Amino acid sequence: MDKHEEKKLEEFVDRIMADAPLESPSVDFTKNLMQKIEVQSHQEAFQYKPIMSRSVLVGLFVAFSVLMGYVISQYGLGDGTGWFDKITWEPNFKPLWGWLENYTSSKVWVYAVLLFGFLFFVQVPWLKKHMDRTALLK
Amino acid sequence: MLTNKEKELIEEIRRGNARAFTDLVERYKDLVFTLSLRLLGNREEAEEVSQDAFIKIYKSLATFKGDSKVSTWIYRIAYNTALDRIKKNKRAHDHVEIDQVRKMGLADMDDALDKMVQEEKRQLIDQCLAKLPTEDAGIITLFYFEEKNLLEMEKILNVSANTIKVKLFRARKKLAGIMETSLEREILESNG
């Protein structure tokens, strides 16, 4: 096909395309689209997102397993030579809670602690309700 | 690249103004739907793909740098969304034997088209475009949507202007061939 014929073909297609109809989607296209966007953005706002991705967790698990394998291979498992067997397991809470034996407190102090505890448990559901409402409004 | 009006519109959408996004959809929905329809050949599917394309547009507005016209960016997303759907369905129509005008000639075809009623003519053109292979239909549609700007088309199709020119030439030949067959059939039918 020479240049002249090519030009003619181009002009012919230009004329056809000038008459080609522009199609329209359904009447409620925009309305449906906006509803879809609204639903999706609401879902995204409440979507669970793990702090660590699956690959990081798998990596950590593998690293931990390798470390454990190394420790076991180096120090053995309960043959009396490892450091694990040298740890004393008898619990001794005396230094930690010993001060409680002689402790006394005033009535006012007890009431204050109880009231603080009560209010703390009241505000947890109240705060949850408040945060749910503000998230919905957004 | 962007006009002040386009910049304002995009800023409004980024600020969360739903009304501004509705305006953008209203402005481009027919073009996006027509492009999808010509690529997919099915109205229901084209509507779904157009909706998906607009959702992608909405989500990627935050990262749109404005290095091309808004329309080019929208067509690129719509074109790729339609292609993804075609790949997913593994259903591109690409078998057109006719790739050139044989007997009638372009001038005769012009005459025949001129004699047709406008509505009839539009219907015939629509049918012929639907018979074009997916790639050709996409290239021809985008060429006219982009007002014959090959540089903008490069950004949509990710191929060089010269490649687009070659593809356009082939698509034109195929369209003229399909048009000829359809007109011959029309003439035969009208002559009884």
Brief summary:
Chain A: Keywords: Membrane, Transmembrane, Transmembrane helix. The complex is a heterodimer of chains A (138) and B (192). Chain A has helices at residues 3-19, 29-45, 54-75, 94-97, 107-137.
Question: How would you describe what is shown here?
Answer:
The complex is a heterodimer of chains A (138) and B (192). Chain A has 138 residues and is mainly alpha-helical. Chain A is 66% helix and 0% strand. Chain A has helices at residues 3-19, 29-45, 54-75, 94-97, 107-137. With 192 residues, chain B is an all-alpha fold. Chain B folds into two domains: 4-89, RNA polymerase sigma factor, region 2, helix turn helix motif (Rna Polymerase Sigma Factor, Chain: A, Orthogonal Bundle); 106-190, Orthogonal Bundle (Arc Repressor Mutant, subunit A). In chain B, 76% of the residues lie in helices and 0% in strands. Chain B contains nine helices and no strands. Chain B has helices at 4-14, 18-40, 43-60, 70-89, 106-114, 118-131, 134-145, 150-157, 161-190. Chain B is elongated and about 60 Å long. The mean pLDDT of chain B is 86. Chain A binds chain B through residues 1, 6, 8-10, 12-13, 15-17, 19-26, 29-30, 32-34, 36-37, 40, and chain B through 18, 21-22, 25-26, 29-31, 33-34, 37, 43, 46-47, 50-51, 54-55, 58, 100-101, 106, 109-110, 113, 118, 121-122, 125-126, 128-129, 140, 144, 169, 172-173, 175-176, 179.
How many helices of chain A in DSSP terms? Answer: 5
Distance between the termini of chain A: 63 Å
Tell me the overall shape of chain A: elongated
Rg result of chain B:
19 Å
Mean pLDDT of chain A: 82
Roughly what fraction of the amino acids of chain B lie in strands?
under 5%
Question: Can you tag this structure with a few keywords?
Answer:
heterodimer, A: 138 residues, mainly alpha, B: 192 residues, Rna Polymerase Sigma Factor, Chain: A, Arc Repressor Mutant, subunit A, 2 domains, 9 helices, elongated, membrane (chain A), transmembrane (chain A), transmembrane helix (chain A), RNA_pol_sigma-70_dom (chain B), transcription regulation (chain B)
